[in-house]
Amino acid sequence: MENKKYGEFDLKHKLLKGHNPLLSHSGVNAERLASRFHELAQIGLTNEKGSRRIGFSFQEFEAKELVKKWMIEAGLVVQVDGAGNVFGKLVGKDLTLPSILSGSHVDSVPNGGHFDGPLGVLAALEVVEAWKETSFQPRKSFEVVIFSDEEGSRFDNGLLGSQAMSGELNMTALKKVRDFNGEQFESVLIEAGLTLEGFTSARRDYSSIEAYIEVHIEQGKQLEKEDLPVGIVSGIAGPCWLQVTFTGESNHAGNTPMVGRQDALVAASKFIERVSELPKTVSDTAVATVGKLQVFPNGSNVIPGKVILTVDIRDIDLNSRDTLVEKIVAVGNQVENENAATFEYEELLRIAPVLVDESLKKKAEKACIDTDIRPFYLPSGAAHDAMVLGKHIPMSMLFVRSLDGISHNPREFSSLDDCVYSVHVLKKMIEQLNK
Questions:
Q1: pTM, 2 dp
Q2: What is the CATH number of the domain that holds 307?
Q3: Using CB atoms within 10 A as the burial measure, which of 29, 233, 245, 425 is most buried?
Q4: 4 falls within a domain
Q5: How many helices (H) and strands (E) are present in the chain, helices listed first?
Q6: Which range among 93-102, 212-221, 349-358 shows the weakest confidence by mean pLDDT?
Q7: What digits encode the pLDDT tens for the residues 65-124?
Q8: What is the mean pLDDT of the chain?
């Protein structure tokens, strides 16, 4: 029967189908969690049943307002900083101690899923709800956070909320950027009820925070292969982007003999093939991807005279990541020597990886064991707000199994059971930190 309010898309029903009700215990309520996923999903719902809540849009604001309402009902003290980051604070017994922070974001890519971001926010809030139902007050204050514009779909520059909180943003550069509609950053902020001055003032004293723990969907298939609901992140990979150019000579495809051709695309193809083999020579967690390729003049009857491509290189270990970069550059030089095409490269980005705090990893391991989950470590290849905060305070991440590894897509899905398991693990971690 069609839901009259929400049409054919009923995420709550989908989540509850096949759910194990025995997982609702210790104050954790799976049906409440499913209902909240469902309500958030209706904000910015696309024709493909995906999510469109771009950073600093009305939809992101509306989603934050909904979660703020839940925070207040749960007894949290809510504050919003100058970057639009939302903090719901459960006051602890000892006000002299720093807070424990947990959360994520509610913005999305243009046609994304309903778990990337919201899971981290709702899991942290569900911990508060569980404590409320069991009349538990933590010794240390606990804060549920919603960071602004994590995805970066608006300005091709993500993690803006957490970077504002950390004081890491280049506001001079941000003043010059424009969104996909040509609107300047400052104009977008004003429409969202924010200001440039507010963004600068959002910087927070990290001495008031003991640790940050983020729950997030895996966006990969490792947990699915291991048949595990939750995994422990070992570190967040730091990316290095190289823009590579191979230059040969354009000529007629029919009248130019094969011998003596200066085909830039052939050279680029050899380079790409070798790049794909290099990560495993460096470490088990290193990756390298050529995801963007431009061929000039791009004619079906013209020998390619120039190819520009990007190489995305990542690892959770700084030394192995940088070693891989060196090997890839060396391969480019080898291809140039073997082919009649020159090799040039430019470094577009280099960000250091961030490792998870060892003490928090041990607490996550114990929390998994206490929840009857086999501890399993895996790296995060994608950037998260935890990466920004991890430069300043102890940080940990929990990954939740993703169906078929799909993310940033309307088909993105994590089962309700897996989401509830993550709440139990997060809750146990925070309770360990309160001993």
A1: 0.88
A2: 3.30.70.360
A3: 425
A4: no
A5: 14, 13
A6: 349-358
A7: 999 999 999 999 999 999 999 999 999 999 999 999 999 999 999 999 999 999 999 999
A8: 95
Does 373 lie in the same domain as 335? no
State which residues form the domain around 300.
238-350
Q: How many residues does the chain have?
A: 435
pLDDT tens for 368-394 read 999 999 999 999 988 899 999 999 999
Relative orientation angle of helices 416-433 and 30-41, to the nearest 10 degrees: 110
Q: How far apart are CA 381 and CA 303, in angstroms?
A: 36
Picking from 254, 277, 260, the residue whose alpha carbon sits closest to that of residue 328 is 277
Looking at residue 99, its amino acid is S
Query: For residue 144, what are the β-bridge partners?
Result: 88, 102
Q: Which residues are annotated as part of the binding site?
A: 105, 116, 151, 216, 408
Q: What are phi and psi of 100, to 5 degrees?
A: -105, 135
Cβ neighbors of 431 (< 8 A, separation 6 or more) are: 138
pLDDT digits (tens, 9 = 90+) for 254-271: 999 999 999 999 999 999
For residues 304 and 262, the answer to whether their CB atoms sit within 8 Å is: no
Question: Residues annotated in the binding site for Zn(2+), as ranges?
Answer: 105, 116, 151, 216, 408
State the first-to-last Cα distance of the chain, in angstroms, to the nearest integer: 49
Instruction: Quickly state the pLDDT bin for 170 (edges 50, 70, 90).
Output: confident
The total number of structural domains in the chain stands at: 2
Radius of gyration of the chain (CA): 24
| Measured distance CA(387)–CA(391) in Å, rounded | 7
